[in-house]
């Protein structure tokens, strides 16, 4: 007979296994990261303020993008520089929301391949010196994983947060205002249908391999961010991963999902010769009980609206030379990618056991930092184009009105 599910003393019995109930998990995390719970009117005010801030800033950025679109017909180099600026504004908006509306601690570690590329500054902040052109692959734990990977481009030197291109689900493309803004930013949308995705990828990747100055200059910076698992770790995602593993005759994984290799293979084949490195980040979150999923414990609502602190994030970095990656056939590449995911499994098992990843940087210890803006006034960049235009239009209309009335 199948095991019955039940609840007792803050625990849940699911299929014979005893795990903490989600509210108890959140309570435990809140106790380890104490944040005073504001009164209901304050919480409502915070939510309203967040929504006003997000949508007002998004409108500013979106209108700025529309103003710059004619540059594509005039000077493509200037167009791409302009859109990179608007993408920087997007990152600053998301980063400022994460800093001002929640608390986010990050532990950063890495192996010997990146030991000279990750540094802790005297003020406690982090600085990276990763390659200006890369394909970035990562496991997918929460909906907001991309925020922390994009933040890495922000703390990179030179800055690269204006040159991040994220591969996203097609459904995101249809979100009002946001979807169109992401399309203008050059993000890649996938439907998981090879017939539909191939021309999209071909078009986008051709833009990412273009050179400035009419083809005579340097290749533009590029961080192409991909989640080979295709979706974040969840109950539904786990079920699909099990079926996929059975069809492929492979052993399913525990802490990650079986990666899909076709899209990543296509991109690396198309970009080969234009970049030297593939960077890999393994993400883990504290406070997720065995047998449960981070997306159910730490939601966007609890993080931003309820002021629950985001679970401490662990990022473990590695890099691989593209020339060492087998790209002759899809089968060869899939075998290579599965090796990397099995290594991730070992890393995540170590994190589950000890609470940290092993590290070859910072004298064998992870670097502790927080998601923060370098300077608070950087967020004013979101109005750097639209505000002067608006003021100019207002001044001209006032002057014309004054002349007419005179």
UniProtKB/TrEMBL annotation:
Cited InterPro entries: Acyltransf_C, Plipid/glycerol_acylTrfase
Organism (species): Imshaugia aleurites
Pfam families recorded: Acyltransf_C (PF16076), Acyltransferase (PF01553)
Transmembrane region(s): 44-67, 379-400
Domain Phospholipid/glycerol acyltransferase stretches: 134-265
Keyword set, alphabetical order: Acyltransferase, Membrane, Transferase, Transmembrane, Transmembrane helix
GO biological process per UniProt: phosphatidylinositol acyl-chain remodeling
PANTHER family in the cross-refs: 1-ACYLGLYCEROL-3-PHOSPHATE ACYLTRANSFERASE-RELATED, LYSOCARDIOLIPIN ACYLTRANSFERASE 1
GO MF annotation list: acyltransferase activity
Entry annotated with the keyword Transferase: yes
Name recorded for this polypeptide: Phospholipid/glycerol acyltransferase domain-containing protein
